[in-house]
Fold:
Amino acid sequence: MSMLDASNSQPFFLGTFASNCSGGMTVTKVPERWVSSWDNNLRLARLLDDAGVDFMLPIARWIGYGGETNFHGSVLETMTWATGLLAHTRNLTVFATIHTAANHPVVVAKQLATIDQISGSRIGLNIVAGWNKPEYEALGLTLPDDHETRYGYAQEWFDVVRALWTRTGAFDWDGAFFKLRNVLGDPRPAKPLPIINAAGSEQGRKFAVRNANFLFTPAIDLSRSKAEVAALKEQGREAGRSVEVLTFAHVVCRPTEKEAKDYLEHFGRTNADWEAVDNLVRLQFAHAQSFPHDLLALIRDRMAAGHGGFPLTGTPEQVADGIAGLHAAGFRGTTLSFVDYAEEFPYFRDNVLPLLEERGIRAAAPRMQSAI
Structure:
């Protein structure tokens, strides 16, 4: 059974984000920055699975952001990455992040139905309608200038996928973007997959509340986030659906606050790859609406430290306080990233997870210390 399920009794979901990408979520030049090799990802997945963490979420990229490190220049493809990790874990949900413009829906529907069997229904789908113009150009595609076209295409794309997963006979499809003849979804997933979508524009959020179980949005200011989360849930109710909201965070957890802040200064400012940061910020301004544009200029340093994620910096108690703040703002969960996921997660596991359980933010899960 998929651990990431909106009906799950887990009060607050935890996952990781972007471990399939070089650098992870940290645009830094420090030598210990995350190396997104298969061996490192498998080691991390086993640690997370043993600790009762709920999910892993990847980023799909085809070109990097330049700079000295070419941040996200080396990326493991998400469908094959998810399949491999699911074959080596027991309870973890693993998402595939799929760009609708680059992947045919009939192929994707069959790939995910196959992984559903391999994993015992622990695969999820993160749908990306597209925003990164240089990547479209790298793939020989044209990025539509208007969100209506992008999300119109994404809607029909997902309608085709759902039809293949729910219809028991062969059918034709005569849509605006897809003309299909005698297609059949066989096999089909044993149960509905959890769907994630990150959307910032008005059209994007309409798509998300209509199709996704979990909306993915940044938490920049928690007072603002509380109203935003409530509005998104209300928008879902108006569409006749119950939706939950996830965010993303970056962890620097150390025994003392000074150690944590000193390390943040070291990797996230002194040794940030500022050229790559500026390329990332420029693209976000030009093509994406994942971040509120009136705040984006204020979080340049957060882009270096954690790709704009909510900062969880300090002692285990302070990190637990930060996660409690996200929970209080109405988020149903957050992803976590670290400079080096596999080296730093065990300290978080041993010192932060018990605090979250004591506070009732996380349900206690059987855990065993991984030898990896």
Q: What stands out?
A: The chain has one domain: 13-358. The chain has a mean pLDDT of 91. The radius of gyration is 20 Å. The domain at 13-358 is CATH 3.20.20.30 (TIM Barrel).
